[in-house]
Design goal:
Blueprint lengths: L1 H21 L12 H45 L11 H5 L20
Length: 115
């Protein structure tokens, strides 16, 4: 959590250095030192906001995955094709929304599994 806020604060400082560099002004001038905490604060606030966005997106994705798994389970029960071990696909299929579950996987001989 803190690392994201610190990163974006540092990014804000970098933007201030870049701004002064483009203007060819000295980096540390007494009248303009107020800009560094301002840019760092704006960057930190953006990082804090982005952290909240990420948490909401993870929650939405988790809820959507759970809803799809529940829908997949209900459909399998309705059609009577639940697998022997009680799962509705491989672990990867359960985590990957786009892959339909299969009851068996056939890998031709001579082809490595990691390919």
């Amino acid at each position: 959590m803190v690392h994201k806020i610190l990163f974006w604060s540092g990014f804000g400082l970098g933007v201030r250095f870049w701004q002064l560099g483009l203007e060819m002004r000295p980096f540390f001038q007494r009248e303009h030192l107020w800009g560094y905490p301002l840019f760092a604060g704006i960057g930190g606030a953006f990082g804090y906001w982005m952290m909240g966005v990420e948490e909401r997106q993870f929650r939405i994705l988790t809820d959507r995955r759970d809803a799809l798994l529940e829908k997949r389970r209900r459909r399998a029960e309705r059609e009577g094709r639940e697998l022997a071990d009680g799962t509705l696909g491989t672990e990867r299929q359960l985590l990957d929304e786009g892959t339909p579950p299969t009851t068996s996987v056939s890998i031709p001989a001579g082809i490595p599994r990691n390919a």
